[in-house]
Write a structure and sequence with these properties.
One of its GO terms (molecular function) is structural constituent of nuclear pore. Pfam families: Nucleoporin_C, Nucleoporin_N. With 1363 residues, the protein is an alpha+beta fold. Helices cover 44% and strands 15% of the residues. Among the domains are: 286 residues, no CATH class; 89 residues; 267 residues, no CATH class. The chain contains 42 helices and 32 strands.
Length: 1363
């Protein structure tokens, strides 16, 4: 029987290199061997498109390309017996084809079979393929090339034939075809010069090239197309199978070209096509030319087998919508059948849905068409027509399904081309329609793009409504556009559809690209309803995938830009980007090899894909959210880390194989993959040949890198360190490999993050040491993979265990090589551990959940107190102090850096003192010198933070003397350090006096220290006195110009002297109080007994019923007993709560009235207290004064004279307090701030939370004290209601003022009362308001208080010495 593959075999055997066959001696050109059936070429592949078998009377095919392309129709005569064998199958073209772009619906690839001469040259050519035979013809101006374009060989065998047309460079390129030679299994070549009409025909490809070298042999059959008009050219050629070819002319004429005569011999003849019956002439006649050719330009011509045996049906369509049909025979006979004008029907179908106002401005033009099918019974013919609808500033393309029957046409369906965008509208639109079989997808070639349009039927209206009601969108058939790169200047020189008789197979077509090669576009059958959305419409994921995997293909002609062409939502883009990134990490794409001999190359390819993905997103799509940016960045980190981990693994395998003695343990990676839980890794499938678990992990599961890394530690801890029989070298070797795995992963990831943050749209300034800075977006991202809990704990444990093993091995001099490796890795691990701890607690601290913030606070505290300082400082134990200093510098841990410097300095100094070797001593001196230089460098680099840490180390080590004696310290920073903290006031004073020679600053620091840090009353008085001495010394040494300036106004030295005097006055009150208690304190057995004695004596009366006020009094006594400084509020409590009567003054004239001292203490401390506290305290003092007197008895004035009443009022506690205050006001006007308010305004003082909240933080204690104060206030309110306390309060103030005046008169002091700021009756005449005196404390003269002059200073110094 006849072989269906014989024809293809013969066609390709002619292109085989003759050297492949072993020649015999008798072989030669003189005696040609008889033709034998050629064997199948090794270049033939298995997926040759199945072919449609159609004979001359067969049914019409579906695309308008006639059955002569189907080589199975030819009869192959076998004249020699062959052994039975299985027919060879063609291999897959995909083996060596370069995919240019691909998605779920179609693929566009470059086939390898293309002549290098055409690929590497800019010589223009036109291509005419014969897909059924896999042959292609390329015609240049001087040569014809024939080759098997389906060959997998990048340099296929090419038959090259010369053309004798003598074309000029300006002449159009020849047209031609690969010709099937009837029943034989040979193929010929046809070439035609478009401008001259010269025709050359080679009837046999196999012998044509050989004959072209022999001038004496007949090479080809030549002819000419006669009766061409001047300037007329042949624009295209259409194969009409056994009837020859149809030539299309630029004038619109058509001609039939036949290549054989009636005897079957090669013979060239042409017959111009007759017009319709109404024209009365042929296309080549003058009348025919005017009647049709010029008026109607031909858009396209197609042919199919006719219903009449031996005839071919030819259909021509004009651009203005006229279809003409003929019948042709092989002998040149032609019969015109009909002409149908469908322009109006097409225009009406295209204008559906448009505004009526634009209808008159639009015009429809046919660009191309294809024959789809015909109905024999109804004598109809169906077409798929490519139409352009042009209007004002608009141009739309559509595919119309058109049915012609009799003399009418009906448009049954319009398919708009939705996804094709032209930046500039062409004046003369053009396009080529390519419709393969099965005809489920059409391809449209525009000048700068290829459109893929599904022809699947859209759901009818009822079904679409159901889908809409159910929430499922009703989507139109799939369409997409492959745009060509403008930079490549893509020009398609020929195209042809490929055919298959099967319906559920891809539709494909081939396109020949100038200076590039042969491309094949294949589209899958339409998607079913069950397919995902990517099969039904263009998605962001589809476009991103194409750009990610194929935009980096070398010399790709596809433009993957989506700007101005597609629009996708931000959420869709982000979801697509993250899904693609996941797929790359899992190697789930066909573009990523699943089986490879070079895992390194596969990993690099995935790294490149991730980089291309983010580059595309940044360039073409809306900005990503912070979460998406970091998600993609983390995937890039993992891939970069995986690449380096694989390289280290390969090095470990090679080292282990080369040195079995050193590497006694097997590599760690196989065990890691084995112990990881099944849900975190892809299962090995041995039935598919998968045997290597490690390769499988790097292929599929690298996205779960954070899961497997902690197992590097857990494996050692669980299976090795828990085994008491395990030898230490084995553990150390495992730990060394664990170190390498963790270091490789982390160092690569952090380096990638720093280097590529900007590429991912993250501000690189927000990254420090490989981690995100605080307050830079942690609240917007998930937990970073590098610092999950398990990893942080694992790295911390590895650091500690590795260092411990190294120390033990060094001390025992055991396995020192392994110990050295562990020690060398330890600093890098410490660095990583610090990074991930910082990242973890920073992320936790910036989350919204309180539980996470609390956890972050705990982690941060542990890190700052233990992890960082301990791990960095402990590097000293393995002899790596320098590395510790480097890490402390990196993380700005100045405290640990100071510890390291101190430790190293002490070690070098001790070594210098103890060594007997001069060389070692000299070496220590050199190192000490370098250390001093390093310290100076730290002062310059880190400034005050380093100074604080370094100098604090001296204080902590009780080497304060060294701070003032060592010369290599930075003087400025030392002074600033000592001044910055009042606790260092004494050292600061020494430094100011000895080093800075600044007595004013010395006085200031002592005053500040005494006020804020000194708790001992005596020491505070000493510091204030010394401060006053320093300020007086500054005043004495003040230059003359400064002294003159001082006369004009007080200087800061005067202000400081006034402050020192004020605080000394306060200390004097404490001294007076202590002197009262001194007999009881000295008479007690111990401090506790002294407090008890004081409480028994002074906590009587109403305090027995006021336990919490009693507690305040006891607290004050405890401070007095221990000579501690009492704050103003507590001192006032002691002075106002004591119950004994101590109103008699001392012999030296100092006031001993407790309430007077309280008022003085409050006035001196007025500006040290907040406004609420000082005013409430003033009210409390006066209320407690009033509680001392019996106002019921005073109110009973029966038989009491005015003189007696005045004496009674003056001798009350209230009167004595007023009398003392009036005398104090004569000393300083500033004491007016404590003059009382009217009685009704005193009520409410000290009984509110706001009054006591700054002093008592505990709510319970504060409420109890407020309650007892309210009880006292209640007693006063009773006196006010029943005994006219408010009036007696006023009269007592007046009586006290009169008594002071009387005493002054009796003493002979009748001076002008200029110092008295309150007239005797003014306070209560004017509404009971206090005198209007400025509340700010005036600067007192040096003689305002005792101890302000030089003599008193000396006396004070003597008192302090006695103390």
């Amino acid at each position: 029987m006849f072989s269906p593959e014989a024809t293809i075999s013969s066609a390709r055997s002619s292109l085989r290199n003759p050297r492949r066959r072993q020649r015999k001696d008798s072989d030669g050109l003189k005696e040609q061997p008889r033709r034998k059936r050629s064997k199948l070429s090794q270049e033939v592949t298995a997926d040759s498109p199945p072919h449609i078998k159609v004979n001359g009377n067969g049914r019409p095919i579906q695309n308008g390309h006639v059955s002569h392309h189907e080589v199975e129709n030819s009869m192959v005569l076998v004249d020699m017996p062959v052994r039975d064998r299985k027919p060879a199958k063609r291999g897959s073209r995909d083996d060596s084809a370069a995919i240019l772009t691909k998605n779920e619906n179609y693929s566009f690839k470059r086939l390898p079979g293309f002549p290098p001469l055409l690929a590497n040259s800019s010589t223009p050519f036109r291509a005419f393929p014969l897909p059924s035979a896999g042959l292609a013809l390329a015609l240049t101006s001087s040569q014809a090339f024939v080759w098997d374009y389906t060959s997998t060989n990048a340099s296929p065998k090419v038959v090259t034939l010369p053309l004798s047309f003598n074309l000029k460079a300006s002449d159009p390129l020849p047209v031609g075809a690969v010709v099937r030679n009837g029943p034989t299994n040979d193929f010929g070549i046809l070439a035609i010069a478009p401008s001259s009409g010269r025709v050359t025909f080679w009837d046999n490809v196999e012998t044509a090239e050989a004959r072209s070298h022999l001038s004496q042999r007949h090479q080809s059959v030549e002819g000419v197309v006669s009766k061409m008009y001047s300037g007329e050219i042949i624009t295209d050629i259409v194969d009409i199978e056994h009837a020859g070819y149809i030539l299309i002319f630029s004038t619109g004429r058509l001609a039939q070209l036949t290549l054989r005569d009636s005897q079957g011999r090669p013979s060239i003849s042409t017959h111009f096509v007759q017009g319709n019956a109404n024209t009365g002439g042929s296309f080549f006649s003058f009348k025919g030319l005017l009647g049709s050719g010029i008026r109607q330009s031909i858009a396209s011509v197609k042919a199919r087998p006719s219903e009449l045996k031996g005839q071919m049906e030819v259909v021509a369509a004009t651009r203005n919508g006229v279809f003409k049909l003929w019948e042709f025979s092989w002998s040149g006979q032609q019969v015109f059948r009909k002409e149908v004008d469908v322009h109006d029907e097409m225009l009406s179908a295209l204008q559906i849905g448009t505004t009526p106002e634009t209808h008159g401005q639009q015009e429809a033009h046919i660009l191309d068409f294809a024959i789809v099918a015909g109905n024999k019974e109804e004598r109809s013919l169906s077409f798929l027509v490519l139409v352009a609808l042009s209007g004002r500033n608009a141009l739309d393309y559509s595919l119309l399904e058109l049915v012609l029957s009799d003399n009418s046409g009906i448009v049954t369906r319009a398919i708009p081309i939705r996804n094709f965008n032209q930046p500039q509208l062409p004046r003369d639109p053009s396009g080529t329609l390519v419709l393969p079989t099965p005809a489920h997808t059409a391809f449209i070639h525009f000048p700068d793009a290829l459109v893929v349009a599904s022809l699947a039927e859209h759901e009818d209206d009822a079904e679409a409504q159901l889908l809409s009601d159910s929430g499922s969108p009703s989507l139109p058939p799939f369409q997409d556009t492959i745009y060509f790169s403008n930079e490549r200047h893509v020009h398609i020189t020929g195209q042809a559809p490929e055919h298959s008789s099967k319906l559920a197979v891809p539709s494909s077509a081939v396109f020949f690209v100038q200076d590039f090669g042969v491309c094949q576009l294949s589209a899958l059958p339409p998607a079913s309803d069950d397919d995902d959305m990517g099969r039904r419409k263009i998605t962001a994921k589809s476009k991103l995938e194409q750009s990610t995997f194929y935009s980096t293909v070398p010399n790709n002609i596809v433009d993957f830009s989506v700007a101005s062409r597609y629009s996708f939502g931000e959420e869709e883009v982000e979801a697509a980007a993250m899904a693609i990134s996941d797929g790359i990490l899992a190697s789930s794409y066909d573009a990523l090899e699943k089986v490879t001999s070079s895992m390194d190359e596969q990993l690099r390819k995935r790294c490149s894909a991730l980089r291309t993905l983010i580059s595309t997103l940044r360039a073409e799509y809306p900005p990503l959210s912070t979460k998406a940016k970091w998600y993609l960045l983390w995937h890039g980190e993992k891939m970069a880390a995986a690449l380096q981990l694989w390289r280290r693994y390969e090095e470990r395998l090679q080292a282990g194989q080369a040195d079995l003695d050193t590497y006694r343990e097997m590599a760690l990676w196989p065990q890691l993959v084995r112990v990881v839980h099944e849900k975190f890794k892809t299962k090995i499938r041995p039935e598919l040949g998968e045997t290597d678990a490690v390769r499988q992990y790097f292929l599929r599961d690298i996205g779960k890198l954070e899961v497997i890394l902690p197992w590097a530690w857990q494996l050692i801890r669980t299976f090795y360190m828990s085994d008491k029989k395990a030898d230490r070298p084995g553990i150390m070797e495992r730990l060394t490999e664990t170190n390498q795995i963790l270091l490789t992963a982390y160092e690569t990831a952090f380096a990638f993050r720093e280097e590529n943050a900007e590429i991912y749209g993250i501000n690189p300034n927000d990254i420090l040491n490989g981690i995100l800075k605080p307050e830079c977006g942690y609240d917007l991202i998930p937990h970073p993979w590098t610092s999950i809990h398990n990893l942080v704990n694992a790295v911390r444990s590895v650091v500690d265990v590795g260092r411990t093993l190294a120390i033990d091995s060094f001390e025992e001099e055991f396995a020192e090589d392994l110990a050295k490796k562990l020690a060398q890795d330890n600093p890098r691990l410490v660095e990583v551990d610090c990074q991930i701890h910082i990242e973890r607690f920073t992320w936790l601290s910036e989350q919204s959940e309180e539980r996470r913030r609390a956890s972050g606070k705990s982690v941060k505290e542990d890190f700052n107190k233990h992890v960082r300082p301990d791990q960095i400082f402990n590097l000293v134990n393995i002899g790596l102090a320098a590395e510790g200093m480097r890490i402390a510098e990196k993380f700005h841990d100045m405290t640990t850096l100071a510890r390291l410097v101190w430790n190293e300095t002490q070690f070098l100094e001790e070594s210098k003192e103890t060594t007997q070797s001069k060389m070692e001593r000299y070496e220590c001196e050199v190192k000490l010198k370098r250390m001093k230089e390093q310290v100076q460098h730290y002062f310059q680099k880190f400034g005050d933070p380093w100074a604080r840490a370094y100098y604090s180390k001296f204080i902590k080590e009780q080497e304060t003397g060294a701070l003032l004696t060592r010369g290599h310290f930075d003087r400025r920073s030392l002074t600033k350090f000592l001044r910055s903290d009042p606790s260092r006031a004494r050292l600061a004073w020494i430094n100011e006096v000895l080093t800075e020679k600044d007595y004013k600053a010395a006085g200031h620091v002592l005053i500040q220290g005494a006020a804020s840090r000194e708790n001992n009353s005596w020491c505070k008085k000493v510091e204030l006195s010394v401060a006053k001495l320093a300020l007086l010394a500054k005043k004495e040494s003040m230059p003359e110009d400064e002294a003159k300036a001082e006369v004009r106004g007080p200087s800061d030295v005067d202000d400081a002297l006034a402050e020192a005097s004020r605080q000394l006055q306060y200390s004097k009150i404490l001294d007076q109080l202590y002197e009262r208690f001194e007999p009881d304190i000295k008479g007690a057995m111990d401090d506790e007994a002294a407090v008890q004695l004081l409480m028994e004596q002074y906590a009587q009366g109403r305090l027995r019923k006021r336990p919490h006020l009693r507690m305040l009094l006891q607290q004050g006594f405890e401070h007095m007993v221990h000579n501690r400084v009492l704050d103003p509020a507590l001192l006032i409590d002691v002075l106002t709560l004591m119950t004994d009567d101590q109103s008699d003054p001392l012999v030296d004239g100092v006031y001993t009235n407790d309430f007077a001292l309280a008022l003085r203490a409050l006035a001196l401390s007025w500006h040290d207290m907040d406004k609420t506290t000082r005013h409430s305290t003033s009210k409390l003092i006066w209320k407690r004064v009033l509680m001392k007197d019996d106002w019921a008895s005073i109110n009973d004035t029966k038989d009491v004279s005015d003189e007696q009443l005045t004496e009674i009022l003056v001798n009350t506690a209230t009167g004595q307090a007023f009398k003392a205050l009036v005398e104090m006001l004569e000393e300083r006007k500033a004491y007016s701030v404590v003059w009382p308010k009217p009685l009704h305004e005193l009520f409410g003082g000290g009984v509110k939370d706001s009054d006591l909240c700054t002093r008592f933080g505990a709510d319970d204690l504060r409420k109890d004290i407020i309650k007892e104060n309210l009880d006292d206030e209640g007693i006063l309110q009773v006196h006010a209601e029943k005994h006219r306390l408010d009036l007696w309060f006023q009269e007592t103030a007046k009586a006290a003022q009169r008594q002071v005046e009387l005493e002054k008169a009796e003493a002979g002091q009748h001076q002008q009362q200029s110092l008295l700021i309150i007239e005797p009756e003014e306070p209560y005449i004017n509404g009971g308001m206090e005198p209007e005196i400025d509340e700010s404390l005036e600067v007192a003269a040096s003689e305002a208080f005792e101890g302000d002059d030089e003599q008193s200073v000396a006396d004070q110094d003597i008192d302090m010495e006695d103390a």
